[in-house]
Design brief:
Distance between the termini: 25 Å
Number of strands: 4
Number of helices: 17
Shape: globular
Order of helices and strands: EHHHHHHHHHHHEHEHHHEHH
Largest sheet: 2 strands, parallel
Helix content: 55-70%
Length: 371
């Protein structure tokens, strides 16, 4: 992560695009007399996903079923982890679930139930990813990590020729890393790099909260089943690992299909910190939709298959993205702005794999220039 200087989006081409689009989207909500926030479907989804996470765990610890049945319960909990992350806490921590800030904060704490810390997540996702999308050294989501290369500007290593295969193994440990080390590492990085500008006293309280979240999480998810309910240690540990592998794999893949696919760009600022595009066009160039016509996928991934719409309108609840996506696409076509999408989940996965394969075989752009 680089020291965070001020990046400016200085381009003026197609400035009319977002002005026109924003008015049309506002007209859509006004003309249809609907809120930009949650609806009944969103509430039902929240209840279903939270139940899918909590109910299997309660059944496991109180009924102590045969191990193979318990594993099914842990598997369902893994599905729920991804679902809650994509469909519930994501909207709440963007402030788009409801117009009430306190309610958004309360619902956003669903991330704490999963072992993560909302304070760090808002720094990483809302502040860095949404502002500096696909800008190497500023958007952590495309930083090189665990030998995985997600953009053409980072150093290339010979073993990355196989990253189209081994990346998926690492995807499966993402949430496990999150609940153990990631929040503590990010906490230090964000202070050091100027992302977190809170006072030392406020940061001390923040660190205490992060620590308590982890202690309570591991006490409930591991210690209670093993010590109080006398479930064999190996059964709890294997179930816990299965849950996180399933949740981590789904979360990682879904987020990668929005930005690390063929067609998206990875611009760098010039020596003055300028990106030669306006913000909205930058989002259109660095973000892609997938499976826009699939109601099942849209329901489960919380509209993250409509990442174009989400990046342009992060304060609109995702249940409205299918409706406004047509407006976004039409306006983009009229203004000559690219609208990137893969029609199916399979197309998006193939595109992601193809880009991983390509990035695993070509040197970084700086290495090519030096050569």
């Amino acid at each position: 992560m680089q020291k965070k200087g001020q990046i400016r989006f200085t381009g003026t081409d197609n400035a009319i695009f977002f002005v026109t689009l924003r008015k049309r989207v506002e007209d859509y909500f006004r003309d249809n007399k609907i809120s930009r926030n949650y609806n009944a479907a969103m509430v039902i989804k929240t209840i279903v996903l939270l139940t899918a996470y909590i109910a299997p765990f309660l059944l496991i610890i109180f009924l102590n079923p045969p191990f193979w049945i318990a594993l099914i319960g842990w598997f369902i909990m893994g599905l729920a982890i991804a679902g809650i992350g994509m469909s519930v806490m994501h909207d709440a921590n963007h402030g788009s679930y409801t117009s009430n800030e306190k309610t958004n904060n309360f619902i956003g704490y669903a991330l704490n139930l999963l072992g993560g810390a909302t304070c760090n997540w808002k720094f990483q996702h809302n502040q860095l990813h949404h502002t500096f999308t696909n800008i190497a050294g500023h958007d952590e989501d495309i930083d090189q990590k665990l030998g995985m290369r997600f953009n053409p500007h980072t150093k290339h290593y010979f073993f990355q020729r196989l990253q189209f295969f081994y990346s998926f193994i690492f995807y499966g440990i993402v949430t496990l890393y999150w609940v153990t080390l990631k929040d503590f590492i990010q906490f230090g990085h964000y202070i050091h790099h100027g992302v977190n500008r809170n006072s030392p006293g406020k940061n001390a309280i923040m660190l205490l909260k992060i620590t308590l979240i982890k202690v309570i999480y591991f006490f409930c998810i591991l210690f209670v089943p093993m010590y109080f309910m006398h479930i064999p240690v190996h059964e709890v540990v294997l179930g816990f690992l299965l849950m996180h592998f399933v949740g981590g794999m789904i979360l990682s893949v879904v987020f990668q299909l929005a930005h690390t696919v063929e067609g998206t760009t990875h611009p760098l600022p010039d020596e003055n910190g300028n990106i030669e595009n306006n913000w909205a066009i930058h989002q259109m160039n660095t973000t892609a939709d997938f499976s826009r016509k699939s109601k099942l996928i849209s329901w489960y991934v919380g509209g993250l298959n409509f990442q174009v719409e989400h990046h342009l309108f992060p304060r609109i609840c995702h249940v409205h993205y299918p409706a406004i996506s047509g407006i976004v696409k039409q306006t983009a076509e009229e203004c000559g702005v690219p609208y990137l999408e893969n029609e199916t989940l399979g197309d998006a996965l193939r595109s992601h794999l193809s880009l991983l394969h390509k990035l695993g075989r070509v040197p970084s752009l700086s290495e090519l220039v030096a050569g």
